[in-house]
Design brief:
This protein is an alpha/beta fold and 322 residues long. The chain has one domain: Alpha-Beta Barrel (TIM Barrel). 32% of the residues lie in helices and 18% in strands. It has a 7-stranded parallel sheet. Helix 5 (150-159) packs across helix 7. The protein is globular and about 55 Å long. Mean pLDDT is 90; it is low at 259-264.
Length: 322
Amino acid sequence: MKKKFDFEDITLIPQFSYVGSRSECNTTCEFGGHKFKLPITPSNMESIIDEKLAIKLSENGYFYIMHRFDIDPVKFTRKMHKKDLISSISLGVNEESYNFVDLLMKENLTPDFITIDIAHGHCVKMKKMVKYIKEKLPKTFLIGGNVSTPDAVIDLQKWGCDAIKCGIGGGSACTTYHSTGFGNRGWQANMILDCCRVSKVPIIADGSIRQHSDIVKSLVLGATMVMVGGMLAGYEESPGKKVKNMINNRWYKEFWGSASSSQKGKTNRIEGIKKLVDYKDTSIFNKLTEIEESLQSAISYGGANPANLDCLNSVEFAIKKS
């Protein structure tokens, strides 16, 4: 078998640079007919994003995907439209989600983005839901996920997805790999490259992002957007509960996976955990600025003229020898 590689196994090769200053580099990206400040989105997890943060992100030009847990996506879409903000919701594949689609159509509400959010997206339920949404809400930009193989990408785009979210079992709060042995943990980078090579629609790389360089490498490997979870946990706006450890006198915030018992409210078929992450005592928007600055530096090393994210499409990389 050919050895699979991950982010730490590859190094990007600098190109001749036309950039006078890194501050000149433009990190904006186009996605779904809209322009966004960065090619990243917070994970659509209840411990990462809530309605308040979604509004603030949209107001400031960032892409987001609202989670689907204990939320009325019709009411949320209506509120975002009234505020003249981008509406981006998540749905599942159960009966309730079909009912939400019917209500959206009945109220003549078309979300700008809908993400069909299930653990294993290469399945018959995904195929049926894609078809249903495309028939009822044909103008919405439809994201399907999650998948992790070229065959799945080919099928989802054939079924009608406008973008595909790729990555299974790689998140720090996910235990899918430990529970089942399935997923792409340990070769997320290789998976992104394989999926992007066959895709004719944008790919959102989801999972295993631990450093800013992992975001850059995801873009070099072909992703259009990168989903970030644990990296954005623990900030002022992060929804997780703030907890103080009385032993070390330090503050933390709760962070949990979408398939954890904390999220599902039950103890069977669990593929996620709840854990505490350091409380950063600063705004999540400061972190987004840090990521923007890293991307600007990456663009300068990528040698773009003009200085924008397009340069990363042609950056070469070296795979470290095992």
